[in-house]
Amino acid sequence: MSDKFEADLSVELGPLKLKNPVLVSSGTFGYGEEYGDFYDPSRLGGMVTKSITLEEREGNPPPRMVETPCGTLNSIGLQNVGVERFLREKLPVLRGIETVRIVSIAGSTPDEYAEVARRLDGAAGVDAIEVNASCPNVRRGGISFGSSPGQLSALTAAVRSAARLPLIVKLSPNVTSVEEIGRAAVDAGADALSLLNTFRGMAIDVETRRPLLGGVTGGLSGPAIKPLALWHVYQLTLNLDVPVIGMGGISTGTDALEFILAGANAVAVGTANFVQPLTPVNVIRDIEDYCRSHRVSAISSLVGAARRTGAEPLPER
Amino acid sequence: MTVRGGAIHGGRRDARAMRRKYALTATVVSRTEVAADLFEIVLDCPAIARSALPGQFLQVRGWNGCQPLLRRPISIAGTTAGCVVLLIKIVGTGTRLICSREEGETLELIGPLGNGFPPPENSARRLLVSGGFGVAPLLFFAAAYDVAGGKILYGARTGAELHTGIHGRLGAGWSVVHATEDGSTGRRGTVIALMEEELARDDGWDRVLACGPGAMLKQAARCARSHGVRCMVSLEVFMGCGVGACTACAVPVIDGDRKTYTRACHDGPVFDAEKIVWEELPF
After folding, report:
1. Interface predicted TM-score (ipTM)
2. Are the beta carbons of B67 and A70 separated by less than 8 Å?
3. Cβ of B69 and A38 within 8 Å?
4. Residue A202: is it exposed, middle or buried by C-beta count within 10 angstroms (0-12/13-18/19+)?
5. What's the average model confidence in pLDDT over B5-27?
């Protein structure tokens, strides 16, 4: 028996309209070139590029990644081609991908972020900016901006005034209160938030008695962090009315649905791209199947549904 | 030089089609333990077998779930009649799980990946230097190309670790010399000692191609340089994605007059030994 039921998978992320809620996260999808052999990236709801800085960066010394239980620790250190080469060499490819193209930006100072944003603003093929205020693997900038509400507020405001593009701020979990930091970003003009970047961690070689990563510490991602990230999405969206891209260990449709039910408007596949390149399209298919079998006419109706069932957590304070 | 049907057929092919990567599931046609903890696995996989080049690799997964998480990069050891041949040493959980897949079961593959060794020009003489399971991509090379004169120096710690059944696979013009550190098979000593002797004895080698443990490759590079012979190495590097997206497999190289990091999975795993900043690598 054929089933003609077709769910509306489109979602809104502040000013952005996505054809489906599945994106790929920054640093796991290059600039959109690497996965074209496996599927058409235009099938994605959106994609976030590797973070771009004002000048080219060579990144951290190897080893840059180690495998940990159900996850990886990475210390890439924002290796990227710099904004000018990005515009010249990478953007033309990106422009050909029919999805919401979000360019991640990073820098050592708010001025650097703002300058990168300024150069991206108005470039055809750039649909939004994601501010990486949460890279745990660089000495200056990165996570330091995302650790204090005051600094993140200033950074967000600087980028906001430099570009008219929709602005997403990616938060770090390595803080006392993600919610407080998120509020600062929203108050300073962020249209949406990405939750979360990696959890800071490390691994040590017992033979050499030295840290395994060239950058000493790294960021943990993969299935290992899924419950942690899911809680952060649930907690933040409970108290803050802002569109959220949820991520952290998503490798199946069920994982993605959990994030949506917790309160994410969209989700991003990250580390799972490395394990199975087809993960994002499999997740989209799984969500479609779920909607069909559960007679969900619009995926957006499920956003935050887990919060509406009386399962409110006990007050924290 | 002629090109053998098994490996590089079809003559010149469209460069873009050559770089096409596949993500697929392949059935294990056969699995044989050819030396201690060293398995030869033949996979039914025409798409990859058609375009694979010696020196390229696959990202392989032979388990479900997230432990271990990442695929394992495995050099292609040959192709035959729509199949890909892998030579896998059990070194940890991932490779153990891959090698436990039996005939009729499947493995998940991504590939072919990486750049591969440059093919030999006419009448070029190639000295292949391999340590342990590093013989895999060199075996593919020697099976793919007939040469005017080629030699494979193949070393391991003990004879039990040597895959001694490789002779029948090679193209015309190749010979094999074994070395073991305990002297149980072939010459006693390291493959580097053998290489040193060979380069001192015969100054007609055009190029050395080497694959094996990092420390061995570093020595091979130094040895080749001291004899003024160009050396290409296939580096074994920890990889995340294998397709160029994560930049975890960074290799420090000299690009013009500056040092930069390049991706082993995309720009390697075969590098000109003179371009590598060996001091920065952890061996």
Report:
1. 0.92
2. yes
3. no
4. middle
5. 64
